[in-house]
Design a protein that fits this description.
Largest sheet: 6 strands, antiparallel
Distance between the termini: 18 Å
Helix content: 25-40%
Number of strands: 6
Radius of gyration: 22 Å
Strand order of the largest sheet: 1-6-5-4-3-2
Number of helices: 6
Shape: elongated
Structural class: alpha+beta
Length: 191
């Protein structure tokens, strides 16, 4: 039967063992998918928040190499007050599971970060209902197979050296971004 599918078989044991397989695990990134992340969905706790704008502010600048940052750059909006100036960009911090940027708006400093939703949700001061709403949205997006990051901001007085001590700041949850990597058209027949 395998010969009909042009399969070369050196050992009949291999075919017998193949018949016992019930699940096949494959690496989908770039093999089954196009390896081009895009933002497929977004959620914000308030209609007053422009996720396109705040995602640009969390990105920090346009010199990006990471797939997540490229997708954010594509999604982000740069149309905002020119009175904003970038003070400092913070690279990804493994311990805090976040990266971000500090912006100055006429003497008022705001730090915008993007990172692991479970970590950023813990940093933000949310009421019980707001926490439940954000966690429900996160579960919903993850259940659809999306990779999700959160966005948050905090007004600060000083310029932190790094993202080590984030706990004491008044963080505000800005939203969730859901990323998808589209399947290649030839993936379905291959599987």
């Amino acid at each position: 039967r395998m010969a009909k599918y042009n399969a070369l078989v050196r050992s009949t044991n291999a075919i017998e063992n193949l018949g016992l397989i019930t699940a096949v695990a494959v690496d989908k990134t770039g093999t089954l998918t196009k390896n081009q992340l895009e933002i497929a969905d977004a959620w914000t706790p308030s209609q007053d928040i422009n996720l396109g704008q705040v995602s640009y502010l969390a990105l920090g600048d346009e010199n990006v190499l990471e797939p997540f940052d490229k997708a954010i750059k594509k999604f982000a909006e740069k149309d905002f007050s020119s009175a904003l100036s970038l003070v400092k960009k913070y690279p990804f911090n493994q311990q805090q599971r976040a990266s971000g940027a500090l912006w100055d708006h006429g003497g008022k400093k705001t730090i915008y970060i993007k990172g692991a939703p479970e970590h950023l949700l813990n940093l933000c001061r949310l009421s019980g209902d707001d926490t439940d709403g954000a966690e429900n949205q996160l579960r919903s997006l993850v259940a659809k197979g999306f990779r999700v990051i959160a966005l948050a901001s905090a007004d600060i007085d000083s310029v932190p050296e790094n993202l080590q001590n984030l706990q004491g700041l008044p963080w505000k949850l800005l939203g969730l971004l859901a990323f998808a990597d589209e399947l290649r058209p030839e993936s379905k027949p291959a599987i």
